[in-house]
């Protein structure tokens, strides 16, 4: 157990929240004792399913010949669309994606059938022997082709304010440009997996590595043609989700259930890593065209921005992702006269999906690129120019989607980071360094983040929880959120411990389970703690108030005078052990458990015009990053990173720091080394760690200083905290802008820097050659 000298452990009696308690599973995870779905003991007779994937990007599916596969030892059979008793279309919001391909295939890797065998390797080997008869059709593989062909998964959305055309015409200066930004594979360490266990009377228990057990439940019921109440989905933890398991974990679960139903046996489906790359969606790649107008001081006076969103073959979450990109195309900057046109393009690729930031990064990166372009054009310092364009407090405070920015801390936060990172002096040092260094060039950028917190779909901003106090005083909590490594269960337990005034060790959070808290939203949009910890706080508050009333009755005082702290319950008349009160309360038939429900206040917005208040509040941050590039090879390195980030009043500083570090490095990967390459047939050729490179420990900057902004959330959020899961990801835009700064220093003054993301050595060389 934890040694008392462990600096991470709170001293007994102190409140649990605000302290860096270790993640509830940290110890068992490093010991290899924390089970993931694939580690669960297998029931006797468990079968294994493996996917049969389309080798053609677009075509008519004429037949499936499984004879060779069926002849292999251990093979039990094959599942196709014909085996779906319910709706053959997945129960997604747009209802445009087949459970298994039927008469046509729409990307290389699309799952056409499943081979089921006694062991997983038999199933995978056999799946490769299934012959598909496909008549190829023309495929749309790039977003520009899709734009030209008008190929879309959803209609175009336009958000306008003011008179951008007239304002452009009046602008002292204008610049037009393009930007290309790649996608990103989630690379969760635990791949997609589900284990389906048939129960009595057409009921189902499914273990799924999912951010959204409730949706998985719904999808299964829909595909099986049964009511939701027959399906229970559980998830104790994920080995990472990052958005990749917000919807797309559902596919594995539905497939496993179809196989389990057909062969009346438990079925596990765990994708092999290469298959996971080929089948599941990634971050949406974006391309942009823009025309910006500005004055001689760099103040933006007009913007026309086109975003072409590469959605892949189906809608999945592309609508809300593309919406969030629109909501973040301002980032920290007031845009008076603006038009943003967002095309949701259909290509014959994997169906791109949620990924940390959920379109926010793709919205912000383009405005940051534009601001740097303006600064280079005018020969001004990019940080000064950014600050000039910040949202104001009394004026210039309303976003292009008509939400007033009420909690603006941009100027003081960025000012503080500029000072602590020594931005101005380093700018000079770097210029001097570059002047005497012909091959290695350094670059610097300080960029802000303003990220909107709440699901943009207002209805998802609700949560429920259950708090059970047992007669030995121990507390069990269950809530609708899921644990993917982000520390949600730890934070929820901390909040419940403080509500009841008991030590954190007395509180246990159990697996997410659709049978306990129903209709829960996905754990996403960084809102996991905001929603679920609040619901759990309310549930614990109910139990506390019952206990307080009970003690007040004993002591003849008001319930409000009864305090809970340090494992004791104290009234003006005396002090008792929590557990003694619990036992007595039980004997007096007092309810010792409760539910809690929370819905985020203040938010509303009009889905058709994308105007209103989609976000409860904003999370802010800024990063100052220094990089070096080798102008002969195009290689780059991130040298120094200083971050000042706003987590409000932290519930768990160590976990929040981990989120900031991890988010930043993951963002760095998106913009530097993680490259998805689809070949001319539409086959993803970077489908394994051999060719797809995520940042390794050696890529973490040697200087990586992280500070917290010292102010609680100005909105009434749980314990004064702010959401932290996604916002730090976008701090890595400073890496991209620092790289563009380094490239600029190797080119004639004032010239444009046309760098594509990710800034691989190849693309850096191309940008240098310009
Ligand atoms: N951190 C870890 N370790 N693993 C993850 O999968 N997902 C991120 C972020 N941090 C993720 C993570 C994403 S995409 C989101 S939306 C949030 O965590 C979700 O959790 P939260 O709402 O509880 O912060
Ligand atoms: N963020 C993450 N996931 C979502 C959202 C969002 O805003 N809306 C729907 N799913
Ligand atoms: Mo996170 S992309 O909202 O799962």
Number of helices: 19
Estimated radius of gyration: 27 Å
Q: Can you count the beta strands? A: 29
N-end to C-end Cα span: 59 Å
Estimated share of beta-strand residues: 15-25%
Strand order of the largest sheet: 3-5-1-12-9-10-11-20
* Global morphology: globular
- Biggest sheet character: 8 strands, mixed
Which ions, cofactors or small ligands are bound in this entry? Answer: ligand MTE, hypoxanthine, dioxothiomolybdenum(VI) ion
Helix content class: 25-40%
Mean pLDDT: 97
How would you classify the helix and strand content by structural class?
A: alpha+beta
Low-confidence stretches: 1-12
Please supply descriptive tags for the structure shown above.
770 residues; 19 helices; binds hypoxanthine; alpha+beta; five-stranded mixed β-sheet; binds ligand MTE; globular; eight-stranded mixed β-sheet
């Amino acid at each position: 157990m934890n040694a008392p000298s462990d600096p991470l452990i709170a001293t007994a009696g102190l409140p649990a929240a605000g302290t860096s308690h270790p993640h509830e599973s940290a110890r068992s995870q490093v010991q290899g004792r924390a089970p993931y779905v694939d580690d669960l003991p297998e029931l006797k007779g468990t079968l294994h399913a493996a996917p049969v994937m389309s080798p053609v990007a677009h075509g008519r599916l004429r037949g499936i010949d499984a004879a060779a596969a069926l002849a292999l030892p251990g093979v039990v059979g094959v599942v196709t669309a014909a085996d779906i008793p319910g709706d053959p279309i997945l129960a997604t919001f747009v209802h445009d994606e087949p459970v298994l391909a039927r008469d046509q295939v729409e990307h290389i890797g699309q799952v056409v059938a499943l081979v089921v065998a006694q062991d997983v390797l038999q199933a995978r080997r056999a799946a490769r022997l299934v012959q598909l008869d496909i008549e190829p059709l023309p495929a749309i593989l790039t977003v520009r082709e899709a734009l030209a062909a008008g190929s879309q998964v959803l209609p175009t959305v336009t958000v306008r304010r003011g008179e951008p055309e007239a304002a452009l015409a009046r602008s002292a200066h204008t610049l037009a440009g393009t930007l290309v930004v790649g996608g990103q594979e989630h690379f969760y360490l635990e791949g997609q997996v589900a284990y389906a266990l048939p129960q009595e009377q057409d009921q189902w228990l499914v273990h799924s590595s999912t951010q959204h057990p409730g949706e998985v439940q719904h999808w299964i019921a829909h595909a099986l043609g049964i009511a939701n109440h027959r399906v229970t989905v559980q998830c104790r933890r994920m080995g990472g989700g990052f958005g990749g398991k917000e919807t797309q974990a559902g596919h594995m679960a539905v497939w496993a259930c179809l196989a389990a139903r057909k062969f009346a046996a438990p079925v596990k489906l765990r994708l092999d890593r290469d298959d996971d790359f080929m089948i599941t969606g990634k971050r949406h790649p974006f391309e942009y065209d823009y025309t910006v107008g500005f004055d001689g001081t760099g103040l933006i006076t007009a913007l026309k921005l086109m975003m072409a969103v590469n959605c892949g073959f189906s809608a999945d979450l592309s609508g809300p992702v593309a919406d969030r990109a629109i909501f973040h195309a301002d980032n920290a900057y007031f845009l008076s006269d603006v038009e943003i046109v967002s095309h949701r393009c259909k290509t014959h690729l994997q169906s791109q999906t949620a990924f940390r930031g959920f379109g926010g990064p793709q919205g912000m990166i383009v405005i940051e690129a534009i601001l740097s372009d303006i600064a280079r054009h005018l020969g001004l310092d990019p940080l000064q120019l950014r600050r000039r364009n910040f949202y104001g407090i009394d004026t210039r405070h309303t976003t292009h989607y008509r939400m007033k920015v009420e909690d603006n801390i941009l100027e003081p936060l960025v000012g503080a980071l500029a000072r602590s990172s020594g931005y101005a002096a380093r700018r000079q040092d770097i210029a001097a360094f570059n002047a005497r260094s012909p091959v290695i060039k350094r670059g610097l950028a300080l960029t802000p983040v303003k990220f909107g917190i709440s699901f943009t779909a207002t209805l998802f901003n609700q949560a429920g929880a259950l708090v059970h106090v047992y007669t030995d005083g121990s507390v069990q909590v269950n809530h609708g959120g899921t644990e993917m490594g982000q520390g949600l269960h730890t934070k929820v337990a901390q909040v419940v411990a403080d509500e009841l005034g008991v030590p954190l060790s007395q509180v246990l959070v159990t697996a997410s389970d659709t049978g306990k808290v129903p209709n829960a939203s996905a754990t996403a949009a960084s809102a996991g703690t905001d929603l679920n910890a609040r619901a759990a706080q309310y549930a614990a508050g109910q139990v506390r108030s019952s206990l307080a009333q009970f003690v007040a009755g004993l002591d003849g005082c008001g319930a409000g005078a009864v305090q809970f702290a340090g494992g004791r319950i104290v009234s003006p008349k005396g002090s008792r052990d929590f557990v003694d009160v619990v036992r007595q309360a039980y004997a007096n038939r007092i309810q010792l458990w409760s539910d809690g429900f929370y819905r985020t206040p203040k938010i509303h917005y009009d889905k058709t015009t994308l105007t209103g208040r989609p976000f409860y509040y904003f999370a802010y941050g800024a990063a100052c990053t220094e990089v070096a590039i080798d102008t002969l090879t195009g290689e780059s390195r991130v040298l120094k990173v200083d971050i000042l980030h706003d987590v409000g009043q932290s519930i768990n500083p160590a976990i929040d720091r981990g989120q900031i570090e991890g988010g930043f490095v993951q963002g760095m990967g998106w913009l530097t080394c993680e490259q998805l390459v689809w070949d001319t047939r539409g086959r993803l050729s970077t489908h394994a760690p051999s060719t797809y490179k995520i940042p390794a420990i050696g890529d973490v900057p040697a200087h990586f200083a992280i500070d917290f902004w010292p102010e609680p959330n100005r909105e009434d959020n749980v314990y004064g905290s702010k959401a932290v899961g996604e916002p730090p990801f976008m701090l890595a835009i400073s890496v991209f802008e620092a790289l563009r700064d380094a490239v600029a220093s190797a080119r004639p003054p004032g010239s444009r820097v046309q760098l594509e993301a990710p800034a691989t050595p190849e693309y850096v060389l191309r940008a240098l050659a310009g």
